[in-house]
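Title: Comparing notes on inverse folding

I've been comparing how different people in this forum approach sequence design from structure. To keep things fair, I'm posting one structure and asking everyone to reply with a full sequence. Here's the target:
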């Protein structure tokens, strides 16, 4: 993809908007931490790994952007990037949800109240779909904010 700005300007913008951290996967697990910059991660003249800062559980993005940049003729820059999961957060949610379903099944197996089991499973399904929907929405917002910051066409 092509950015309308040159590499020097991209580096200035990343410096202004990115808090440096070599391990954003664990730093991003801190809850209710006020932040001054929009992104968290590392970058240099040719590559970057950044994710969005979070101040609460509701806006945690379990993805990061990994990419490279190359200067092109004129004031443009070629940027290749991909959104990758932060493994601990991304799979941690999925394992926890599976655990909740297994726990619910184990409890219901020893109980004769099938109706309670069904109601709890329906609630768990609704919460699960809500979590995945929110995750997808936050992933799109991360990419949009990144594209807006670097003016990627």
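Reply #1:
Here's my take.
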């Amino acid at each position: 993809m092509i950015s309308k700005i040159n590499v020097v300007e991209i580096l200035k913008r990343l410096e202004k908007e990115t808090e440096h951290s070599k391990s954003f996967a664990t730093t991003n697990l801190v809850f209710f931490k006020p932040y001054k910059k929009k992104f968290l991660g590392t970058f240099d003249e040719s590559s970057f790994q950044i994710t969005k800062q979070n101040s609460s559980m509701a806006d945690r993005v379990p993805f990061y952007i990994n990419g490279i940049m190359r200067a092109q003729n004129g004031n443009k820059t070629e940027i290749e990037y991909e959104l990758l999961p932060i493994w601990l957060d991304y799979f941690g949610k999925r394992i926890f949800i599976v655990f909740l379903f297994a726990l619910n099944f184990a409890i219901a197996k020893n109980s004769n109240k099938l109706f309670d089991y069904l109601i709890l499973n329906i609630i768990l399904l609704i919460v699960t779909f809500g979590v995945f929907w929110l995750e997808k929405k936050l992933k799109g917002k991360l990419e949009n904010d990144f594209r807006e910051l670097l003016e990627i066409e």
